[in-house]
């Protein structure tokens, strides 16, 4: 069985483990059982016709006396590129718009309030090629580009907040950024959040195309809760998640583009650790499929030049602050994961575990400030 | 199957999954396969006679031109208490000394260089009772107590660094601390590291007994590498792991005492995330068994008073910076996990992933300094 065929850990366990063991294995691996969310039959049918996986789960919180539940439904969309990477740029973008548009229609049928797409969703993940053209032509204005206008229409039509991670062209200076545009359910651009940490690993030195973001750790107050966007490689940096949480994020999205050989064993760990440590929900979104490029490229590993860099393994999932998580979407298919979460769970877990209260942040601020100075003396005890 | 009987996720998967799927499941869940470490037959026999589990694994690094391998063997010891909790204090301590002494003998046969015991290893984890007596009598001087003398003998006899987490009595002020004493393989006390973060959750408000540590993030330079100790609840705080790493830790031990209902789904996540994020090895050690106390106590959960607070699930394991990990020790038995690691892997993973270089720590120092001030204005964007 090749890594491109294997559908998911969850399905495999379900198929082979006896019931009593399955329930213990799930408890240890995935925490408290995630409940199934009933979705309309019409949505299931539409997903089947349009050939993508649709799954629904929910996280509940305990009833409280003074606060009503704060239930929100998020939708995570994972998809392959639609046209070959050498098709004309505008055709590629339009084809992806159509595909995602039809998935978002189903999200609307499922009552999704906030939808998040994968990193650089309108384009192939071409940064491995080191070619500037035609890939920089996929960059658009965050505020007024085609893609943002498309998302604004979706937002208005479906009364849905849209998180749209894209390659941004800042027209005034000609600079590029890896940016998530956050569009309110009113259709207004609420703001944008640029990728804070840039990988220089394997096929990707993405600083060939764009540099570290300058939007800090912005959190967006939407009608459905306070959300933030930690783009891709930022998930490896616990401080990045932490600082979004310090600014009040209740749900942190992690739109990504990452392949099996590089990161698959990290994928189930990092977003989940962030949900636990920060008493919030995290939503990890990855693209699927293998993308072929016309020009060959090397990977700095001594191997021959090639035309693709491996399989994007999908597996999008949501992690909760109580250390539970949903199963992932498929490793191989387009999909929509609909998750209802009661945001009251965040404060309940914070009251239970008290990581913010026991965090001693003033001391860390002081230690970190010292640690970044040139005259830093590490605290090393010798005999 | 009750949670006290279920032996381990790894054994269950091995027993039921077909080979092709097993290898995919392991790859996704546990990363690159951990190699078995050959241990002497005499050690296996001694472990069997002494009724504890013995497992050995190794992590290799790629050969380098300028640095020889830096192989070190660590031993993690997990065990039940030996005598009932109402036996005389000194008898309880002596019995545990004997038990751990016989396990350490086997560790020596396996060539272990650094051994780490579980949190507060000389005593039952009695902090749930809220009784001061007789539990505070288990506290000893870190530098000159019985237990430290015992560990110094072990260290000298076996040429082994000993990490001894214990309840410390600071004689001058009468204060108690939750402390790990680090004893050099020469037998000298190298120093101590006090628990930085104190839980207030479920059965445990441990600040009834001791307060937050004042030893910062000390790292100990031993003959076998630079080690640090993040005690128990500190594993929930990514900043805690991070700051040990900023001070140069190559191996971070996490001696713990934690039970199933509370934390079992977090256990495989947190130490492993820390190893990935900080390019270092982490060693998670938990005790096993259920401990019964003569006096009943309540748990603040509306339930009846009871005499124990649940099953310590063992499952001690080592996580590597390449996102792989060893299988865990049993959930139910005393055990010794021997792991050989080539510390060169840390720098190799740092060179590959570059989290320290891409970490933007100066900006976080600035942001965190602002975030802890009373006049902090969170970065929240509104429509």
TrEMBL record, chains A, B:
Protein name (record): Beta-ureidopropionase
Organism superkingdom: Eukaryota
Gene Ontology molecular function: beta-ureidopropionase activity
UniProt keyword annotations, A-Z: Cytoplasm, Hydrolase, Phosphoprotein
Function: Catalyzes a late step in pyrimidine degradation. Converts N-carbamoyl-beta-alanine (3-ureidopropanoate) into beta-alanine, ammonia and carbon dioxide. Likewise, converts N-carbamoyl-beta-aminoisobutyrate (3-ureidoisobutyrate) into beta-aminoisobutyrate, ammonia and carbon dioxide.
PANTHER family on file: BETA-UREIDOPROPIONASE, NITRILASE C965.09-RELATED
Domain CN hydrolase: 72-343
CDD domains recorded: ML_beta-AS
GO BP: beta-alanine biosynthetic process via 3-ureidopropionate
Assembly and oligomerization: Homodimer, homotetramer, homooctamer; can also form higher homooligomers.
Compartment(s) of residence: Cytoplasm
Location (main, coarse): cytoplasm
EC numbers, comma separated: 3.5.1.6
Organism: Betta splendens (Siamese fighting fish)
Principal EC category: hydrolase
Family recorded in the similarity comment: Belongs to the carbon-nitrogen hydrolase superfamily. BUP family.
One Gene Ontology CC term in the entry: cytoplasm
Pathway connected to this protein: Amino-acid biosynthesis; beta-alanine biosynthesis
Gene3D superfamilies with a match to the protein in the record: Carbon-nitrogen hydrolase (3.60.110.10)
């Amino acid at each position: 069985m090749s890594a491109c065929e294997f559908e998911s850990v969850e399905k495999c366990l379900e198929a082979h483990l006896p019931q009593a063991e399955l329930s213990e294995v799930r408890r240890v691996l995935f925490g408290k059982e995630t409940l199934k969310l009933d979705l309309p039959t019409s949505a299931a049918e539409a997903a089947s016709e349009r050939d993508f996986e649709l799954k629904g789960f929910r996280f509940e919180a305990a009833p409280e006396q003074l606060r009503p539940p704060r239930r929100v439904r998020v939708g995570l969309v994972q998809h392959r590129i639609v046209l070959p990477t050498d098709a004309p740029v505008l055709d590629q973008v339009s084809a992806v718009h159509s595909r995602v548009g039809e998935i978002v229609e189903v999200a609307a049928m499922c009552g999704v309030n906030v939808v998040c797409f994968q990193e650089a969703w309108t384009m192939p993940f071409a940064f491995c090629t080191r070619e500037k053209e035609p890939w920089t032509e996929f960059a658009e204005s965050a505020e007024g580009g085609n893609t943002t206008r498309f998302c604004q229409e979706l937002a208005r039509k479906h009364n849905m907040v849209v998180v749209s991670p894209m390659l941004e062209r800042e027209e005034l200076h000609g600079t590029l950024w890896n940016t998530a545009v956050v569009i309110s359910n009113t259709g207004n651009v609420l703001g944008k959040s640029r990728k804070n940490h840039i990988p220089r690993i394997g096929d990707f030195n993405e600083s060939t195309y764009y540099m570290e973001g300058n939007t800090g750790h912005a959190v967006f107050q939407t009608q459905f809760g306070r959300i933030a966007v930690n783009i891709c490689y930022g998930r490896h940096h616990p401080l990045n998640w932490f600082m979004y949480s310090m600014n009040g994020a209740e749900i942190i999205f992690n739109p990504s583009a990452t392949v099996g050989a590089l990161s698959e064993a990290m994928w189930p760990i990092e977003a989940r650790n962030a949900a636990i440590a920060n008493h919030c929900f995290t939503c990890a979104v990855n693209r699927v499929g293998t993308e072929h490029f016309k020009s060959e490229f090397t990977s700095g590993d001594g191997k021959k030049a090639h035309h693709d860099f491996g399989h994007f393994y999908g597996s999008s999932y949501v992690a909760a602050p109580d250390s539970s998580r949903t199963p992932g979407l498929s490793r191989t298919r387009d999909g929509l994961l609909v998750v209802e979460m009661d945001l009251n769970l965040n404060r309940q877990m914070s009251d239970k575990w008290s990581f913010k209260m026991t965090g001693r942040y003033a001391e860390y601020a002081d230690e970190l400030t010292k640690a970044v100075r040139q005259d830093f003396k590490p605290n090393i005890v010798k005999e």
